[in-house]
Amino acid sequence: MLNYFYVSGFFAVVGLTGAYFYGGLAGVAIAAILSLMEVSLSFDNAIVNATVLKDMDPKWRQRFLTWGILIAVFGMRLLFPLALVSCVTSLNLWEVLKLALETPEIYSQHLLSAHASISAFGGMFLLMVFLTFILDHKRDVHWLGELERKIGQVGNLESIQVILGLIVLVVIQYFAAPEYRFTVLVSGIAGLSIYVIINSLSKLMNQHFIQTHAGSQIKQTGIMSFVYLELLDASFSFDGVIGAFAITKDIVIIMIGLGIGAFFVRSLTVLLVQKRTLQNYIYLEHGAYYALGALAVMMLMSIYYDIPEVIIGSVGFVLIALSYYSSVRFMRRRDG
């Protein structure tokens, strides 16, 4: 099992060595804390990724595990916050980078000022992912038994996920502070719309693939699944990036720490796919999606309330642990 973590372990050694030369022992300690925080917050991300990757075209699966990690580490953990602050301040990326390196306190204040739009976008995107799963009336496995089965039947209603998502967004923006309402509404609609577009295009491409490869083994077409997974990773990483500034304002240490965590999450994803963990532990996928739904709710609630990272991580961990326990009990009853 340890061979799955050789690459992430190597990157951790290189990253922590760089953190030592950059910030001494304090830099190493902070980077290590951030990497542990990233893994704890993204364990459910690894499981959800694995559910998509197991049916993904092998070529695009490999691209996600290689190109995707570069996007995750350098794109989402470095370029995205810089681009966000650039939009807020009207500075170009180079000026924002200088701001982050020379006056990190001001940089973090600009980033935190965009928290409402980030939470609305990411929260709505993740909420749509959760609603699509829980309202899938074609699912055969139900962790919560008859209750979950009845909830799934609601999915027979046309576009019910979008309707429920819009209702949640209207309520969220209604209770937001007046100066944030428009921002929350626009960002939330953007998150919802992007999910619908990606999901619709993925279904269209899959249908085309089925029609042109009749009789062959069907795999999910790659590019839309790749984009979907990258957006999913982005939504998961929003809180980690923002939360990191509560620990340090140094973007170099933040990128190193979160980057190490991102590598370990990718390694965990590969392990789950190749060991067929989701097929063996049948409720683990459910736990991950419920944790994702809880994260979506907490991201939307964070527009009003400051929710500590430890609570966000703990809720996801408990839900996944419970689903693992339920899976083990199911296997014992089945085999006993």
Q: What's the gist of this structure?
A:
The protein is mainly α and 336 residues long. Helices cover 82% and strands 0% of the residues. The two termini are 27 Å apart.
What does it look like?
With 336 residues, the chain is mainly alpha-helical. It has 13 helices and no strands. It has helices at residues 6-53, 58-89, 93-102, 104-113, 115-134, 146-153, 160-175, 178-212, 222-244, 251-274, 277-280, 284-301, 309-335. Helix 1 (6-53) crosses helix 10. The longest helix has 48 residues, at 6-53. The radius of gyration is 20 Å and the shape is globular. The protein starts with 5 loop residues before the first helix and ends with a helix. The relative contact order is 0.19. Residues 213-219 have low confidence and may be disordered.
**Portion in beta strands:** under 5%
Question: Count the helices. How many?
Answer: 13
Question: How many strands appear in the DSSP assignment?
Answer: 0
Sequence of secondary-structure elements: HHHHHHHHHHHHH
Task: Give the overall shape.
Answer: globular
In whole angstroms, how far apart are the ends? 27 Å
The major β-sheet equals: none
pLDDT averaged over residues: 81
Low-confidence stretches: 213-219
Based on secondary structure, the structural category is mainly alpha
**Helical coverage, percent range:** over 70%
Radius of gyration: 20 Å
